[in-house]
């Protein structure tokens, strides 16, 4: 590592901020760039604006040691750095096509401060050929030539919320550059923060595709589990028991079914493959169908609620429904693309009064989802309780806490036999 290396990292969110902090911890002088002045202010005060175990300690130490700072001035950051890393969001639009607005904006900013021998690294998940067709033309507005005057590399992150620091420091890293020099320089940087293997692939296009393939594999596997769950429901088989038994086969690994897929990766990345496949005349039928299945699951959960209430002689339009968990996964505050939002919308459309509890998510966010934030006791007192997120807080729920005898449990964290033997109508995705 060159002691003169200075890194500007654009996008201080769930991935960008831990990356910036770990780079600083490993000896790089890092300035983080974000458009949100509150985020910048918190970081410069040594406070983490996101909840991630171990992160605030690193931020506090690195800010105190003057190895990490934050700014809203992206041009100045580029001028004063020789490595620029882009870790901004890449959502999909209303047509499920990639929205590269933030990537384009970051690259335009970098182009105004780009210098000879700089390296630009893209981490943001994006469709193949984004680096070649979008990023490089913008950077070359600087008057410099890619591959000759500056380098470009792509490396996808692999990190799970609530375990981000460990995974960033232990997982393998995939690197693809526009030339061997770009790949080698990026590999040196990321090799300094992970104990995992650093794998260099042929080019940026391959590296872009690797990230999409990883998450599409998982999304498709979950869709298979969800479809099997709905079939099992129809023939009175407990899908969790069946999957656990099936996975004893040495070449079978069926994922766990649930009420839908959330988060910024699994629910979005497959659409990038669908998009580029369509552009090239290849129908990505399996991937598209998997997305449709997983997006349907909140509606399926709503139908379980409606049927269970009807079995008790109640109309959903005159009932209260308590939703347990609006974060997309357990023990995190991340609610991006959460299936709970679609469930709440559907229940509201059916006329139910929706209350929601989540120990990690701000009540104001729950209100914006058009549910009433309540404590756990009040949520459990509803006509129907729907467990959507496997927070540890919910693992201690007992039958006597369910006051009106209907529990739709969509995560396998509670003993259905215990609840059923106590007179609770216990249902869920793939559970009977």
Characterization of the model:
The chain is of the alpha/beta class and 432 residues long. It has two domains: 6-202, NAD(P)-binding Rossmann-like Domain (Rossmann fold); 218-427, 3-Layer(aba) Sandwich (Rossmann fold). The protein has 16 helices and 14 strands. It has helices at residues 16-25, 37-44, 55-64, 74-79, 101-111, 130-139, 164-170, 180-191, 204-234, 239-246, 269-279, 285-311, 339-349, 363-368, 376-380, 416-421, and strands at residues 6-10, 29-33, 68-71, 83-86, 119-122, 151-154, 173-177, 198-200, 320-324, 353-357, 372-373, 384-387, 406-409, 425-427. The strands form two sheets. Strands 3-2-1-4-5-6-7-8 form an eight-stranded mixed sheet, sandwiched between helices. It has a six-stranded parallel sheet with strand order 11-10-9-12-13-14. β1, α1 and β2 form a beta-alpha-beta unit. α9 crosses α11 (269-279), α9 packs parallel to α12 (285-311) and α11 (269-279) packs across α12 (285-311). The termini are far apart. Residues 322-416 form the UDP-glucose/GDP-mannose dehydrogenase C-terminal domain. Its EC number is 1.1.1.336. It comes from Methanobacterium lacus (strain AL-21). It catalyses: UDP-N-acetyl-alpha-D-mannosamine + 2 NAD(+) + H2O = UDP-N-acetyl-alpha-D-mannosaminouronate + 2 NADH + 3 H(+). This is UDP-N-acetyl-D-mannosamine dehydrogenase.
